[in-house]
Amino acid sequence: MKRHHARNGATGRHALSAIPRPAASHPVVLDPAGDPYARVAVEAYAEACAHEQPWLAEALQRQYQLAGGTPSSAAALWRAFHEAQRQAREEDSYDEAAWTHVALHRCSVLGAMNL
109 by DSSP, 3-state: which? Predict the structure, then answer.
């Protein structure tokens, strides 16, 4: 009887291992040096934690060569872009494909400038 129970238990574990794990179990690695979206995310994180954890904000600014206390021009451009896109979505003539096209080109230009 024990052997039958162990076999069922092993089969159950094997069947469960085929179920996809949630994304939280897979680490996400940001590359601010090569990905302008990641750079904006790190800058926003540093800005958000600066008041309560200034040591962390300073460490991020040093590690990723961020402008201390002020967002970089790339982050400011992305914020302005997303605000303009938000406003445009409220209009009847909004074209998602056109905004995506502009965003992709902006990403490539900022990436080439290493911002």
Answer: helix
